[in-house]
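Re: folding output
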Amino acid sequence: MRTVLITGSGGLIGSAAVDHFKEHFDLVIGIDNDMRAVFFGPEASTRWNVEDLQERVTNYRHHQVDIRDREAVDRIFAEHGKDIELVVHTAAQPSHDKAAQIPFLDFEVNANGTLNLLESTRAHCPEATFIFTSTNKVYGDNPNFLPLIERETRWEVDPSHPYAAEGIDEHMSIDHTKHSLFGASKVAADVMVQEYGRYFGLRTGIFRGGCLTGPRHSGAQLHGFLSYLMKCAITGTPYTIFGYKGKQVRDNIHSDDLVAMFHHFHQAPRPGEVYNAGGGRHSNVSMMEARALCEEITGNRMDMKYSDQARIGDHIWYVSDVRKFQEHYPEWTYRYGLKETLVQIFEEMTKRMH
């Protein structure tokens, strides 16, 4: 029975992967124990999403398992063996602010949990494709040392710089920089996934995400930029901008567009390959610009607060150069733009609130 195993299946990317791959596999195995509620509180719980998947997706089988539990993870892999053709690993502690408060838990989930999955893949289904959702935080604050120019609503890279036209590519150093503890634990996992591809020959792919977004995000203050911003716009909850005059820039990729990248990679895997995966020049926005869009879509004036204290390791400007992936997989392209994605988030969130 052709099987795909997805960790973090209740989360934004995991649930998008379930919906995408349910048509391509006989069995979809989901692993998710709702740690997001532990990290960020009950409002960030993904339980609603798991229950929806269980109701809608007839070939979905859920396991309430912690990826830190090596034996429990291995039992699932052992049960299905070589039927597992694809592993999509999206489970993580995803906040660089939260990581400083829970350093052991952060590292155990992000680094040790990833190692558990890699070892079980190597032992039970070594021909499977293994996809890891990494992060642009592996570059630490190196992006902040680019020559930046302040514009009216955003920071931008000096037009003469090589990154100005298309964004930051995979050659940016991940060394000699402040990462945040979250960035460090993801670096450990990122490099480990690369090694299982280069050293052991597993079909591993590493996707260093920008801001990952979409309508099924359980946004919280410490993680889920556009989702949480839209939630505040709808509910009137005050939103605090931290530093950089609210002109910091993020690129945003729709969850379905990222999962489509995973699918293309699975069809022709390149072991140990690393790709920057974000909205690129196609879809990026500053805090000020995102606020204006949320106000336009909701019709509400937002209650915004400002703190001069920037978050440690936060990026002032980050736009992903996705040309390497597009060169390797030319059939892939973006389907969703920024405003379209925000409208989807608004509609889904409004539906869930009523």
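--- second protein (sequence, then structure) ---
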Amino acid sequence: MAGIMKGQFEHASDIRPFADGKGHLSMLDMGGMPVGRAVFEPGWRWSDHVKPIAGTDSCQAAHAGYVMSGHLTVRMDDGSEENFEPGDVMIVAPGHDAWTVGQEPCVMLDWQGAVDYAKPSATSGRAARN
């Protein structure tokens, strides 16, 4: 790894759009450390806009992230729920749904779950978008 690395999400080569134009995930590989910036547009919901891509009943990615703007609610498969707002750091285990709250896009950085996020699974029958 280089002593200093710099990247910009605006120039990411791996951009994964969500269904119905409800946002996207931009990925950067920072010397083997992937980091993603997700933009979830108002009305975005994992079960509506990523589930068709992932092919799983709930999100199976573990997330370690930081909410930069907007609001997001996460509901675990067991029914527990948490709301996240700007400045919140989040750790979310696999097995959840999530959705934006309000009329502002939710923008978050993710250091853990983004590497395979919004990539089609083998069972979904769709080719990977990179």
